[in-house]
Hints:
Largest sheet: 7 strands, mixed
Number of domains: 1
Order of helices and strands: HHEEEEEEHEEEEEEHHE
Number of helices: 5
Helix content: 10-25%
Number of strands: 13
Distance between the termini: 122 Å
Shape: elongated
Amino acid sequence: MIRSFSPSCRFSLFARHAFTLVELMVSMGVTAVLLAFMLSTVVQLLGVWERATGSLSTRAQADLILDRVSQDLQAAILRKDGKVWFAATVQSSPQAALGDAAMSDAVWNGRVKPSSENPGAPGSSLNLEPVSGSLEDFRFGQAGVWLRFFTTQPDTQNSLNNLSAPRAVAYQMVRRHITSSASSASPSTAPIRYALYRSSARPMSPSWPDGNSTFAAGFDLFSEAAAVDYTLADSSQIDQVGNIRSPRRYEQIVGNNVIDFGVRCWIRDENGALAIGFPRRTGLPAGNSNRGFAASLRDGVWAAPVSPPSHGAFAPPALERMTFGFPERIDVLVRILTDEGARILEAFELGRTSRPPETSSDDEHWWNLALAHSHAFTQQIPIRAHAQ
């Protein structure tokens, strides 16, 4: 027997297998919530991954930098002969080569690392007496510390340039166009990066008595007696004496995205106790702040054993703002941006982003970005050389 259904019955059966509008809306809402939750989770995981990789990347760079500095400092050469064998100077005003080190092809004006030196200001780049006393909280000026000294390096025996003989080396932070063809380009369009350079002068020259070597220039970082000395800026060749003041070659870069570099020098005071010689906090003449350190004849004495050079634009801190002594330990600080931080800071410096209204100045916002997207690394390095 064939059973038939009425139209109303067929509609009733169809209705049992369909979704109502309310059910569709509820399912869409649940799906949207799940998608939002999953998206939020993915974004958080990506953020954690970015921070983790950024931390690993900066840690790897810091290890390379600190290992190289440590290798050089542990082989440093010091003598008590009235000459300056070691010097560290705060580079407070590198713009237009007004600082101690002549940083050619560098751009330090505009919306860049602040040049403000008021330690109380949130955007200041100079704070040699942080409340915490921790080296990680120090700020060493717009271009950090210019560190230079005499050292030896392992002998590769493949050329005169690589002999294990005394040579002058220097470390300094530079803000420079990342391509050589961009040296004359507008800062608003040319990519610019912060980097740490290690420059050195060859120990001797194959064409003796060529003045462009450490042996010819002598062992006094403040002397002008040599025909070519360490106060002149000349980087036409990678191993010339002029590189100590003005590194230029990209082969000399030991770290990228370095936005601060500085040292703390420990010496023996008049009682024989280990004390901070630079940056010095106590025992300074009234109205002076410690801006430099030199290892010379008078150990731990606030006095000038040598005259500062006046060559060209070289203008070291006044002698009353320097301390002298022989370091027994050097604490090194290097602050490095993550890759993401470098992109964020570059966008702000090029004017692609603006500071929020609650931030009082561009300088303050620069440091807010820098601190949020960088890591500070420190290392204590004993000085094995004993000055005689």
